């Protein structure tokens, strides 16, 4: 029993030293709970803030669809944009927003589904205090790729 406690303490110390900070430990735990891989940090002018993308399809042209996992840090979001063939979002983690032009922003959580009809101008992204992840499925991709527009300003972003 005494040995078990000692080994547990040793394990904890190694974990803390190895990870530096509690924040990193928390991130590790959170990452281990993700269903889908987070992928690579993207550098693109089509997003505000830090976003990770993992594309997942292997038969995009045969299926006429493109899909992947997208993860946003708090406050990160897409620019305004539209999809000529429409898009489906399946929310897997955290809390975020979907906003279509002229409509109120919709608060989203794990398990929510968003259907975006072709050419509807919109944006999606994380809420101010939560990471946010969704599977994004772009449909009818033979109609053309995402049409990117201007960034979502601080004024437009709900807080
Ligand atoms: Mn979209």
Description:
This protein has 159 residues and is of the alpha+beta class. It has 2 domains: 2-32; 40-148, Jelly Rolls (Sandwich), CATH 2.60.120.10. The protein has 3 helices and 12 strands, in the order ααβββαβββββββββ. Strands 1, 3, 4, 7, 8, 9, 10 and 11 form an 8-stranded antiparallel beta sheet that branches. A hairpin with a 5-residue loop joins β7 (87-100) and β8 (106-109). It is globular and about 65 Å long. The mean pLDDT is 89. Manganese (II) ion binds at residues 81, 83, 87, 116, 122, 124.
Q: What's the N-to-C terminus distance?
A: 51 Å
Can you summarize the main beta sheet? 8 strands, antiparallel
How would the global form be characterised? globular
Helix content: 10-25%
Radius of gyration: 19 Å
Examine the coordinates and then state which fold CATH places here, giving the name of the CATH topology of the largest domain.
Jelly Rolls
Q: Beta fraction of the residues? A: 35-45%
Mean pLDDT, as a whole number? 89
SSE run: HHEEEHEEEEEEEEE
What is the total number of structural domains? 2
Coarse structural class: alpha+beta
**Hetero groups:** manganese (II) ion
Please tag this protein with its features.
159 residues, 2 domains, 12 strands, 21% helix, globular, binds manganese (II) ion
Brief summary:
Helix content is 21%, strand content 36%. The protein is an alpha+beta fold and 159 residues long.
Topology of this structure?
Elements lengths: L1 H18 L2 H12 L6 E2 L5 E2 L2 E5 L4 H4 L1 E8 L4 E2 L2 E2 L4 E14 L5 E4 L3 E4 L5 E5 L5 E8 L7 E2 L11
Antiparallel strand pairs: 1-3, 2-5, 3-4, 4-11, 6-12, 7-8, 7-9, 7-10, 7-11
The chain binds manganese (II) ion.
């Amino acid at each position: 029993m005494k040995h078990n406690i000692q080994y547990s303490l040793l394990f904890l110390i190694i974990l803390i030293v190895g990870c530096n900070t509690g924040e990193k430990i928390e991130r590790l735990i959170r990452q281990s709970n993700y269903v889908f891989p987070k992928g690579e940090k993207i550098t693109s002018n089509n997003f505000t803030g830090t976003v990770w993308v993992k594309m997942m399809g292997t038969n995009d042209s045969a299926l006429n669809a493109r899909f992947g996992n997208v993860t946003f840090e708090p406050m990160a979001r897409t620019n305004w944009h539209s999809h000529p063939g429409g898009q489906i979002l399946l929310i897997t983690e955290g809390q975020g927003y979907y906003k279509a032009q002229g409509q109120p922003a919709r608060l989203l959580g794990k398990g929510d589904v968003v259907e975006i009809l072709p050419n509807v101008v919109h944006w999606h992204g994380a809420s101010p205090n939560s990471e946010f992840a969704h599977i994004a499925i772009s449909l009818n991709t033979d109609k053309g790729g995402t049409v990117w527009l201007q960034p979502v300003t601080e004024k437009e972003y709900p807080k």
